Amino acid sequence: MSRSLRVAVVGAGPAGIYAADALLKSDADVSVDLFDRLPAPYGLIRYGVAPDHPRIKGIITALQRVLDRPEVRFFGNVDYGVDVKLDELRQFYDAVVFATGADRDRPLDVPGIDLDGSYGAADFVSWYDGHPDVPRSWPLRAREVAVLGVGNVALDVARVLAKTADELLTTEIPDSVHRDLAASPVTDVHVFGRRGPAQARFTPLELRELDHSPNVEVVVHPEGIDFDAASVELIRSNKQVEMVVRTLQEWALRDVGTRPRRLHLHFLQAPVEVLGAGGAVSGLRTERMELDGCGGVRGTGEHTDWPVQAVYRAVGYLSTHLADLPFDHASGTVPHQAGRVLDLDEQPMTGVYVTGWVKRGPVGLIGHTRGDALETVTSLLADAPLLPAAPTPRPGAVVRFLEERAVPFTTNEGWLRLDAHELALGAERGRERVKVVGRDEMTGICRG
Question: Do residues 408 and 29 make contact, with C-beta atoms less than 8 angstroms apart?
């Protein structure tokens, strides 16, 4: 195509930035504007990854290189559906890519799940990561806690709950998070998975990190270490599964040490009811499961009551329904074909695309999102010669639009100012970074 291609990407997390990167690496003459409802970029990396994961946060370096490209602009603190709508974006851009991720907890339909003291993992993660839109205190009153699920998020939640607050002072946790964690009376955190160890969803690295704390004893309960024919085949065919299973078997055989806190791993235990007293969590009832030989499980009718005072469900994330787009509420995704958004008649919406978790669901690691972005961008570029030209493509037009709407948007330059401010706060206290939490404060620093 002869004209320059103008693309808006809604969502400035890894999925959105990878899409921008794929566009810039193509042969097309293209410029990209990234929009995010938060004042700072990086999405999941900044607000969804546990603070004691510096290796994963290292991805930020690569993402920032994309934001620093002259063909890319960042507009933060712009809420799609509120500050700007799809038809308005199409006035300024030839194509719009949605990369808004998944930020809500998938519900768990068991009795008592709504009791006081029952929480979603997404809310807890947002709290300890200093998300600007969640309360700045958390009710950490339980001595014994249950975490439901055996994915990486479940391990993050269990690890943060079990560690002492001072162990996290080397990270960027906000002062309010350290304060609440320091007052936590927790002694035991129980992680429950309804299937066997070969079916666990966490990675070997995430699992081994549990055992690094000098204050937390990891206890694998041996009665859940069981394998059927399907499990054995999975172990033989998948190196990561083999490494996870080997670690769990070794831990199940070792003697329990004397560290002051304990993190228990239970397999083949399915939650059937959150028990309550006076409207608050007083326990968890699980059913012992058995492997069915085909990779699934079935109940045995044997129940156990665990005396926990808080329950965290980490059974998956869901995306939020985006204004003016179709949405599959069962899967929590936008219907698409190779990244092209499909309307209610299953026809592609001209110039509208989707990538990341809102496209395929919250599965896989962050790196898998790059492949998603490449597929979507390939579809976009194939469609480009036939896309209607934006009526007002000038780069300054969208800036004037936001200013006329009185949207206090942030930019990449403003984000770099906030980044430097947080690093300076950390340096004052002998830490790498102290994260600024309040939206108004973040926006004020970004806008100078």
Answer: no
